[in-house]
Input
Amino acid sequence: MLARDDKDSLKRTPLYDLHVSLGGKMVPFAGYDMPVQYPAGVLKEHLHTRNAAGLFDVSHMGQLALRPRSGKVEDAARALERLVPQDSLAIAPGRQRYAQFTNAEGGILDDLMVANFGDHLFLVVNAACKAEDEAHLRANLSDDCMIDSLADRALIALQGPKAESALAKLCAEAPAMKFMDAGPHRVAGLDCFVSRSGYTGEDGFEISVPAGDAERLARALLDNPDVMPIGLGARDSLRLEGGLCLYGHDIDTATTPVEAALEWSVQKSRRTGGARAGGFPGAERILAHFDHGASRRRVGLRTEGRAPVREGALLFADATSHEPIGKVTSGGFGPSLNAPVAMGYVPTASSAIDTKLFAEVRGQRLAVQVAAMPFVKNTYKR
Amino acid sequence: MTTTLYTSDHEWLAIDGDVATVGITDYAQSQLGDVVFVELPKLGRTLKKAEAAAVVESVKAASDVYAPVTGEVLETNAALAAEPALVNSDAQGAAWFFKIKIADKSELGGLMDEAAYKAHTA
Output
């Protein structure tokens, strides 16, 4: 239990009153008082998102604008490439890309979304890292960019097979958007930034809205019987089934994008032999991992029984060995699979699909198997 | 004639002679949320009072269930393996966890009756 003082020091998103009125069970998360679940519960919220549509308050995340001093968005994109191993220059206007801020050792400081809004870049970063991210951008990019923290905006995710029809009622342009399209749109008459993306493995949208209008927009979406409010509990089980990394758990300052099995997110232009190879923090180590392989790798894990294997569980090559070969970084129960799911790091030699390993849970070795991710097929509208 | 007592850790015990049937309270299940897995103690194991006896897992987290008294495990509820969600639907009935042979009845002295437990969770 938190002492009252701690609870009082928690920040609230613009949707706090809405969460409370909907019966949200509020818990501290990344310095915010956030709903972990509503009365429906994690299981129903999870399944409703996969079957219809879920509304998530992700306003705790950081939203930033990178405005090029030259007025040319490519100058902001070129500057950002000094901090990320992604090809930012190739992000077309109206498009978004997944990226990571790396450190000098090739580890990941944070993962983020970068969108090209035509005259500037729009960034969404993790709540727990947003102050450090903003300082990092200011320290490194201020000569080329003005860095605006968009703290006066809320962020609402609408995810699931009915997300498109639900948003279409308030934004006629939404159905025409493709996965990772992003840009300013009017939603319910409000000035929003909409991207067709999310963190569940489902088709869906993230909608940035002025803080003062956030509750109105959320209520307008929730008026649709297909849309249910979803808490952080189901957000975590949905992303885990989707094979998506949680920063601070599955990726951190000690994991490189290659170890994290995020090679797909690093375009060829930034790799060895590419037009703009290297030039980001930790390039030497990250490119060495690309060129020669890394010794460990993030993998998906499935179990034989129903006992969940959770974060921190040690992984072993066999039922009796004393030395662990790896560790689970996220794990729990996947409601859509009706089975436990986990991810963790193992030696690359043990990372092939179907490799049999053992996880230690409460002193017992449980048989687990390396499995392909995502665990649940994603349904992005490409 | 059975008497039901409660622990401050939210277990209930229905006592019939020197046998106690043990489960978690309705309050406990409401706090845990959707139960997806229950691990029960082995038959014949002798549990010490306050020792971790079982584990109940929700989507989010694992929680220990403690032995409310010292004694030998006589029976476990196989229905929970097939249907862990019973813990949510009938925590203080069909979703009992295990039966234990009470080794020392004096250990019951520190437990709460229903009125005291209600006050504890209020």
Observations:
- The mean pLDDT of chain B is 96.
- The beta strands of chain B are 3-6, 11-16, 19-24, 35-39, 46-47, 52-58, 62-66, 71-76, 98-102.
- Chain B touches chain A at residues 33-34, 36-37, 39, 55, 57-62, 81, 84 (CB under 8 Å).
